[in-house]
Structures are given as C-alpha cells and as structure tokens.
Amino acid sequence: MTKTITKDMSIMEIVQKYPDTVPVLMNHGMGCLGCALAQFETIEQGAMAHGMDMDALLEDLNSVINN
Q: What sign does the CA torsion over 25, 31, 35, 41 have?
C-alpha cells in the first residue's frame, strides 16, 4: 500500500505521522517546523510562503515515506 502526502495536509500532521520527512522539509527551506503556524498551515501554504516548488517537495516527501 502506497502512502501519500498531499498538499492539503498540515505541516505538523506530516511531521508527526512521518518524522523521516523533517530533513526533506529542512532541505527545501522550511525551517519553521516548530512555529505555531506549522500546526495549522498546510504544506501547500508553507511552500507558497517560502517560495518552494510544490511538486518537487511533494515528490521528495512521498519518496521518503515510501522507501
């Protein structure tokens, strides 16, 4: 069964469910994982705020959780 991280999941939900994604988020420039917004902000909102390539981020995140 393939696990999937989607753009509408909250950053904190992703980090809590898949702790191995933290380095991926940090490498993409999302260093604010401990801020209050991370609890409510979706990965899409965070990517937009930090000027990240959403497709590349999702690809890397899903690659980590499925390997």
A: negative
Q: Is the pLDDT of residue 37 over 80?
A: no
User: Read out DSSP for 39-57?
Assistant: GT-BHHHHHHHTT--HHHH
Does the CA dihedral 22-27-28-33 come out positive or negative? positive
Share of the chain above pLDDT 90, in %: 61
**In terms of pTM, does the model score above 0.70?**
yes
Q: Say which residue the tokens 């991926």 belong to.
A: 24
| 39 Cβ contact list (under 8 Å, min separation 6) | 10, 11, 12
